[in-house]
Design goal:
This protein is α/β, with parallel strands linked by helices. It is built from 22 helices and 13 strands. Helix 4 (56-64) crosses helix 6 (82-101), helix 6 packs across helix 9 and helix 16 packs across helix 20 (452-472).
Length: 572
């Protein structure tokens, strides 16, 4: 889910910097096994008295596991099961209570998915086909009395629905009230972009999710907020990543990124082969939007300036041994043991690509962001699968870096010109791909009867559309309910070029999409979806459900298939 392989390759950003006190303790006591065995982790308690925007769809999916068979069958029959509703609602309430009580979180925003993005139709169709196959197998196992195996299959069929979100919203309001510390927000489309919107508006300090798409949304809206992954509900341990390494000028010098000096063409060409970016020149003066103010961040001091919630320094607690949020890329020499300042392996190669993007961003704001977004799209995302033969995420980032000097509007086209497009899922495997990578059936069918040139043309169009979705995804203003794009559409007026926002010229151009952004969605369609809390239903008959036709049944005794239904009808 999200960008293929991105979180795994960003793992070096989760390691505490060398200056962290735990590393110093370990270096001073190498012979002490107790010191060397210390595992430094982030913890949700580092965000005490702060507000969190949470991807509720991820939690809702996990909550469905507590009542998988009842939930899945109620969804299939378009009924409401009170026992299932109580089970998954209680799970969500308990997760929120834990954050409020144990982590001292001040405000929680539960953000639910809205309408599916039209461009995601292929991914959604593939997932539903797999879900239906698992459902058939679950019912077969249940009919044979193999309940445990059936339950495992039912868990593969769990999905979040609009009704589930409304039920949870109703339970939240009954627990804390409409204006309590836990608030429910229904995104117009995907929740990921709405999470970014809450941080951009200063309503949330950080995001809790399992979807790496949020990193891309952080980049396009130029707001490096903390993104919390793998949150453990028992002890609060988690992983935290930010996009400061790309977006925040005051952190770039310490990560071995060029300080903004004007580089020669030779410097730019050498980036594709050399991962040793040196710290040279004076630090550049970078203008950043902080709240409603534009401020100069030429140095780390921001005295007298109101700091946006997403830029608060979540320092380390020496007593609790929490890891500080790492906002810089590791230096090339820090991951190498040969003392020559160079490191080997896929991890260091990926970091060298990120340094090249950060260099571009320093010298030309917006350019590095565009490179990062295009590399993520080419790696494979929910909107278009990676269809490059033998190219995984690291290879995709390399291809984008090697074409960094090209006009971003034709970059995909030039990359594909020398690439091989494969419609065979088995031919897409690469050493740096995740194990569960599968072919996109929608793309496979799209490319099946096409020539090589036609496949590349169709693939380039899907890549460009996917990139535009990340920039122009529709989100909602919480105060007014107005639906608008996450990033303002690129202006076609060059008369006021000196006054446009940073990175404006690097936004995707809308002219190439002749029918308009129909693949992104529209506000009118999003507004049709109900976001009212669902009232509770009364449980009766020991958990039996009532269908819309008034027929009562117990979903655990549901016939496994049509043949069994007909046999029972004949016997009656």
């Amino acid at each position: 889910m999200g960008i293929q392989g991105l979180l795994r390759n960003l793992h070096p950003l989760l390691v505490p910097p060398p200056t962290h006190h735990s590393n110093q303790q370990q270096s001073n006591g190498n012979n002490d096994n107790n010191n060397t065995s210390i595992k430094i982790q982030h913890n949700i308690r580092q965000f005490a008295n702060k507000s969190l925007a949470i991807d509720a769809s991820s939690w809702l999916h996990k909550a469905g596991y507590t009542c998988s068979s009842r939930l899945v069958e109620s969804i299939e029959s378009n009924t409401r099961d009170p026992q299932a509703e109580k089970s998954y609602s209680d799970y969500m309430i308990r997760r929120c209570e834990g954050l409020l009580r144990d982590a001292k979180i001040s405000t929680i925003y539960l953000v639910f998915d809205g309408v599916r993005v039209p461009l995601k139709r292929g991914t959604n169709a593939d997932r539903e086909a797999k879900r239906q196959a698992n459902l058939i197998e679950a019912r077969r196992l249940l009919s044979l009395g193999r309940r445990k195996e059936a339950e495992d299959k039912y868990k593969l069929c769990v999905k979040g629905t609009e009704m589930m979100a409304r039920v949870v919203c109703g339970a939240v309001q009954r627990k804390w009230g409409k204006h309590g510390p836990v608030k429910c927000i229904f995104a117009p489309y995907e929740a990921d972009s709405q999470l970014a919107k809450l941080c951009v508006d200063g309503l949330a300090h950080a995001v809790v999710t399992e979807d790496s798409d949020v990193l891309v949304y952080s980049a396009v809206c130029r707001r490096p907020y903390p993104i919390i992954y793998k949150l453990d509900k028992k002890d609060g341990s988690c992983d935290v990543v930010t996009m400061d390494w790309l977006l925040n000028g005051k952190f770039l010098m310490s990560s071995g990124v060029n300080g903004g000096r004007r580089r020669s063409r030779r410097d730019e060409e050498s980036e594709s082969d050399d991962d040793d970016s040196s710290v040279e020149g004076d630090q550049a003066t970078t203008t950043m939007q902080v709240g409603q103010k534009k401020v100069n961040v030429a140095n780390s001091s921001m005295d007298g300036v109101e700091v946006h919630p997403s830029e608060i320094d979540y320092g380390d607690d020496n007593n609790m041994m929490f890891a500080p949020i790492r906002r810089t890329l590791p230096l090339p020499s820090s991951s190498s043991g040969n003392g020559r300042g160079r490191s080997k392996g896929a991890g260091s190669e990926f970091l060298s690509h990120l340094r090249a993007f950060a260099n571009r961003e320093v010298s030309n704001p917006g350019a590095g962001v565009r490179l990062f977004v295009q590399a993520c799209v080419l790696s494979g995302c929910d909107y278009v699968a990676n269809n490059l033969s033998k190219i995984g995420p690291i290879g995709a980032f390399k291809l984008v870096k090697e074409n960094a000097h090209r006009d971003p509007t034709v970059r995909f086209e030039r990359i594909l010109r020398g690439a091989k497009i494969s419609a065979d899922p088995a031919d897409k495997a690469s050493d740096d791909c995740d194990d569960d990578v599968a072919g996109d059936d929608f793309l496979d069918s799209l490319f099946a009867s096409s020539s090589d040139d036609q496949r590349k043309e169709k693939y380039e169009e899907l890549l460009s559309q996917s990139e535009a979705v990340f920039y122009y995804h529709l989100v909602k203003e919480v105060d007014t309910d107005e639906i608008l794009p996450l990033v303002a559409h690129k202006s076609d007026d060059d008369s006021n070029r000196h006054s446009v926002e940073v990175g404006e010229k690097f936004k995707p151009c809308l002219k190439r999409f002749e029918p308009g952004l129909t693949f992104v969605g529209c506000a009118a369609e999003a507004m049709k979806k109900s976001n009212k809390p669902a009232p509770p239903i009364q449980q009766s008959n020991g958990g039996w459900m009532t269908s819309s036709k008034g027929r009562a049944f117990n979903n655990n005794s549901r016939p496994a298939n049509n043949n069994q239904r007909q046999a029972k009808a004949a016997a009656a």
